[in-house]
Amino acid sequence: MIGHTYLYPIGIDMAAYDFHLAVCAEMVFTDLPFLERVTRIRDLGFDVEIWDWTNKDLNALAATGANIKSMTGYTTGNLLDGADELLRTAALSIDAARVLGNPRLNHHGTGLGEGGLPVIPTHEVTAAMWLQAARTLERLAELGEREGVVFCLENLNTAVDHPGVPFAKAADTLALVRAVDNPHLRLNLDLYHAQIGEGNLIELVEEAMPYIGEIQVADVPGRAQPGTGEINYPAIARALARLGYTGTIAMEAFASGDSEAALADFRAAFTV
């Protein structure tokens, strides 16, 4: 870096940088049956992400030919007193993921229930809890290493969507993933949640880059597609291209109106 001018990596054509874009099928085309949502997203040229795999017909989902990039990596358990249960259901999630081509397996600081609220709210995190969470994630990473899959730990916000979730901030998830330091445990860096909880998104991306497994996006406020709120996603896209990011960027957002138009807005925000 010279002053505030960044040098782009050799070989990066900033006029035609191609991001791998995915869309969460849980949040768009919601008037359609789920498999039709997946095929619509696929036909528009995007990869697909899903949440809970237990309520899906995995074989039918695989038969759509869509590239499934991420899914929930556990069904019960948590990083603290539910570690054994989390590992048990993580193993079940690996079996499900293999049907879909081994997408990344997503985790949170604790189990989430109805409306995204924590099953067991935790409003004060102690030093002992940090140690226990790191030990659980070490076990999770070892499971991923044995089975050849990647688990991702997602940051959340506690102010709007997920009050009571421990280890929620991007700074928390980054600290845990960095402490484990295993390529089978990465960050799912959700920039919508990070904007609400912390801000300074470009600096956050720069710091977290070595540990990012994927990036999720939505705008603030409202959790709709990029371009509907305060986040300057084109600037973030340019920063990601400068940093040579080659992973998935997923729109985990509601459509502010027409879903197809929302996906077009998403693509435009990440065309540099």
Question: How would you describe this structure to a colleague?
Answer:
The protein is of the alpha/beta class. It has a single domain (20-269), classed as Alpha-Beta Barrel (TIM Barrel), CATH 3.20.20.150. The protein has nine helices and eight strands. It has helices spanning 34-43, 58-63, 83-99, 127-147, 170-180, 191-197, 201-208, 233-242, 259-269; strands at residues 20-24, 47-49, 68-72, 104-107, 151-154, 185-190, 212-217, 248-251. The chain has an eight-stranded parallel β-barrel with strand order 1-2-3-4-5-6-7-8, surrounded by six helices. 44% of the residues are buried.
TL;DR?
This protein is of the alpha/beta class. 37% of the residues lie in helices and 14% in strands. 44% of the residues are buried.
Relevant terms:
single chain; 272 residues; alpha/beta; TIM Barrel; 8-stranded parallel barrel; 8 strands; disordered N terminus
| CATH architecture heading | Alpha-Beta Barrel
Which structural category do the helix and sheet elements fall into?
alpha/beta
The span between the termini is 20 Å
Major sheet attributes: 8 strands, parallel, barrel
Count all strands and give the number.
8
| Low-confidence runs | 1-15
Number of domains: 1
Average residue pLDDT: 93
Give the SSE layout.
Layout: E1 20-24, H1 34-43, E2 47-49, H2 58-63, E3 68-72, H3 83-99, E4 104-107, H4 127-147, E5 151-154, H5 170-180, E6 185-190, H6 191-197, H7 201-208, E7 212-217, H8 233-242, E8 248-251, H9 259-269
Parallel strand pairs: 1-2, 1-8, 2-3, 3-4, 4-5, 5-6, 6-7, 7-8
Helix pairs in contact: 3-4, 4-5, 7-8
